[in-house]
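Below is how a single chain appears once it has passed through the pipeline. First comes the sequence as given, then the structure the pipeline wrote out for it. We keep one example in the README because the format questions we get most often are answered faster by looking than by reading.
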Amino acid sequence: MLKLMSVALGLLLLSGCASYGVIDNDDLSGAESAQAYSLHSGKGRRDSGDIVLTLAFSGGGTRAAALAYGVMQELRDTTVVVKGHRNSLLDEVDTISSVSGGSFTSAYYGLYGDRIFKDYEQAFLRRNVEGSLIRGLFNPLHWFSRSGRTEMAIKYYEKEVFHNATFADMQRQEGPLILINASDLSYGVRFSFVQEYFNLLCSDISNYPVARAVAASSAVPVLFNPVVLENYRSCKGQKPEWLLAAKKRAANDPELSQIVEGLESYYKEDKRQYAHFVDGGITDNLGLRAPYEIVKTFGGAKSYIKKIGLSRPNRVLFISVDASTTPVPKMDSSRKQPSLKETIGAVSDVQLHRYNTDTMDLMDKSLTRWARELSKGGKRVKPYFVQLGIKDVSQPGEQHYLNTIPTSFSLSDEQVDRLIKAGRELLRNNPDYKRFLASLGGAR
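Resulting structure:
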């Protein structure tokens, strides 16, 4: 990533010209598309009536994508009996929320389902994506391009990974709801690529390329230009009912008030003709706060479950896959003053890990509260929060190895293999996951 950033900055200085975002989102023209990819568009299609299962994939380049893929392999190979039917636990997943590197895995599964286990490793995990992007940056045709470095990455993702697929293609699949999340660079809004958020822009998500959403979710500032969407005016006369209802509830809720204020910023027509989206990890590197905010905005767990068309469950399971690393800083082995790179990295790591800890605590408490909300009569809904991270790898030598894997889009086969294995073992050995399986009578 640092190499790619250095090349990008050098060519930026060489060109000395401004770049402009390519607009590729359609005007909604006053009515939501019947085929829009939305929270309610897949109503009940994976509803077992027993389990609500959400996965959250963090950022971290190919490292995050591979770790998440390993967890998905383990879920695929875990068979459980739900209400008399034997199913793969992966088929019970209702929602996947992702940021940055994790969004490549979630989007691929959302588009292609179990095909991910046949060709995703070659399509992305084992491909030198970073090398291809660097070679593209050295192409003189890109030096003076006014469309920016991100467009080059998008074209690569469209051709080599997502094959020009749109959200209409994802809508036609029978998989879980995929929440690809990015950060609004101007207002810090967490933005999910579903129709409900596109409604705020008076835009139809149906024909929007999945590669652009993933590029926005992983667009590290400076290294990549923001992905730009036009904020149309065709429907600005009336705000969505869910947003108006959230604003009423926010009167005595400072946190909800802040969320609503950010979402309402898209109605500042004189100031927000365009919206610029960058790496989702900036506002939430775990992919957990997006589903949290959506549930909160829609009025709680009961309202959200109804919105997405699921039955009241007996169990609610959240699995968080955190690919962040905690490498040992070299600065402490010398009295030499740390470099600018080391200083920036250390400050960023401290902020990231503290914010991640707060997010985990918030989700743990929220999940317990949601389970109480969903409980009815004498029947208690049981919450399970499974937290998986490289820090949880039990073998010290293996944990050290995984901690040295960089945030990159180019990993060796050995690094990919060991990350996939780690994802599987972390899930299989997690005590909360074992407790969840035991509640179903164990894996078969």
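The first helix runs from residue 2 to 15.

See the next section for the split statistics.
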